[in-house]
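Troubleshooting log. The previous structure file for this entry was overwritten by mistake, so regenerating from the original sequence record. Sequence copied from the archived sheet and checked twice against the printout by T.R.
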Amino acid sequence: MAHSTSHWLRSNNSETLNSKPYPQDGPLYEPWVAILSIDGPAVIDFWRSVADSRAAGKDVAQAGGGDSNAPSPAASVVCMPRSLLVFSDEAYTDYFHGISESASNMLGPQTINLEALSSLGLGEEVERGERRLSFTVRRVKGVKDPEDRLMTQVIIHL
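Regenerated output below.
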C-alpha cells in the first residue's frame, strides 16, 4: 500500500443490518482494501463464491442464528473496535467478503485471527453491538474506457 488512497467509504450499520458480500471490484481499484473498524465488533467472512455466502446467510436467518447446513466461509476475521484489517492479492481478487445478518457469530476453526484475540476463543460468540461504524479505504486506478476516457471520474452509488 505504498500509494495514497483515493476512495473512502463510510459504513454505519445497525446490529440487524448485514454487509452483503462484496464481489471482486474489477479493474477500477488497486487489488487491496483496508477496513478500519471504529465502533462495534463484527466478524468478516470470506467466501469462495457469492452463492455460498447467500446460502449461508439465508440458512442462518431461517434458523434464527442457529446451526445450519449452509457452507462455512473459507475464512473469517474478527474485527474489534479500533482494529484495522488489510487484505490483498488472492483474498481480494478470488474471494467475496461480508458480514452475516446474525446478531452474533460463533468463532470456528475458520477464524484466522483467534491467536491475536486474548479475550476470545474457539466456540465463543462475538455479539454485534447496536451500531457498527467502519471506513473502507481503497485506491482507484486510472482506468480508461474504450473511448480513452478516464473512468475514475465515474461515481457509482450502491
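Strands lie at 7-14, 19-22, 32-39, 42-47, 75-79, 83-88, 96-99, 104-106, 125-127, 131-138. Archived copy saved in two places this time.
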